[in-house]
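Handover notes (outgoing to incoming on-call)

Open items:
1. Replication-associated protein ORF2/G2P domain-containing protein: sequence verified, structure written out, both below. Nothing else pending on this one.
2. Nothing else urgent.
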Amino acid sequence: MGQTFTRSETQKALVDWLGEHDWDMAGTFTFRQNVSEQQARKLFRHFWNRVDRAVYGKAAQRHGKRCERVCFIEGTDTGNIHWHIIAKANERRDYRWLRQIMLMTWEDINFTGTQNEIRRTYDNEGWASYISKRIKTFDADAWDVGTTHITG
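Replication-associated protein ORF2/G2P domain-containing protein structure tokens:
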């Protein structure tokens, strides 16, 4: 028989796992009101594709090189759709450069909101706890695995 986890155990396991990594930045990306979840997901994938291309060039498409990140979606039930992320700077680029690329790329995409923030994270477990707050026992839909990229 399988093991059963409570919401707090499920979230704690995720927070512990995220806390084991050396993340460099945490961020929030918003949309204007009246953007559908489907449209927001498509735009967020497009955003990350553009960021990955800016960081890795053609290797992003040819070899699947991606910025390492974990993404969580919120507000699908209220219409206030936004993402929280935790990410690593690239070995070839530093935090400030990547932050600038991310903000410029986000501002260039239609329907994005203005309440966006990216900053260094010094408390990985605290941020991981905050962004995973919507994780439920058997419902991890808040974790956007379609835009998350984790390397070994």
